[in-house]
């Protein structure tokens, strides 16, 4: 017996704001935007989607899990797009012959934007 990935739940202070950011960032579709909990759907059907649930406590430490996101073309262009949506840059990492940008969503949750094909990445290449 094994498990299959169904969906991701993110605790947050403003479910509508965060769902709107991540829907735009990932190309997902908002399906239920509610201040108590908001849902966005994966249009590819790869996973059900992401649920953003209201919690009373603020984020206080670095996330123990984060998303690594691969752009379709270039890392720099994707970083600029995400900045326009409300993300912030934490820094750039150059390590092990690769590089990526560490960012935060509007509530401070960390994620990484990896190299894209224009940056020399290929699907057969090494992991970033």
Descriptive overview:
This protein has helices at 15-26, 75-85; strands at residues 7-12, 29-32, 37-41, 49-54, 67-69, 88-95, 98-104, 110-114. The chain contains two helices and eight strands. The two termini are 31 Å apart. It has 128 residues and is α/β, with parallel strands linked by helices.
Query: Share of helix among residues?
Result: 10-25%
User: What average pLDDT do the residues reach?
Assistant: 93
Radius of gyration: 15 Å
Query: Could you tell me the number of beta strands?
Result: 8
Query: What would the principal axes of the Cα set say about the shape?
Result: globular
Looking at this protein, list some descriptive labels.
four-stranded mixed β-sheet, 18% helix, 128 residues, 2 helices, alpha/beta, single chain
């Amino acid at each position: 017996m094994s498990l299959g990935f169904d969906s991701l739940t993110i605790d947050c202070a403003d479910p509508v704001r965060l769902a709107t950011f991540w829907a735009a960032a990932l190309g997902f579709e908002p399906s239920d935007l509610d201040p108590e909990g908001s849902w966005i759907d994966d249009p590819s059907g790869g996973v059900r989607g992401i649920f953003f649930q209201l919690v009373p406590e603020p984020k206080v430490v670095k996330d123990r899990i984060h998303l690594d996101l691969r752009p379709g073309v270039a890392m720099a262009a994707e970083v600029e797009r995400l900045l326009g949506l409300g993300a912030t840059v934490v820094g750039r990492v150059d390590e092990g012959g690769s590089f990526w940008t560490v960012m935060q969503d509007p509530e401070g949750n960390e994620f990484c934007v990896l190299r894209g094909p224009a940056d020399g990445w290929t699907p057969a290449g090494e992991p970033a």
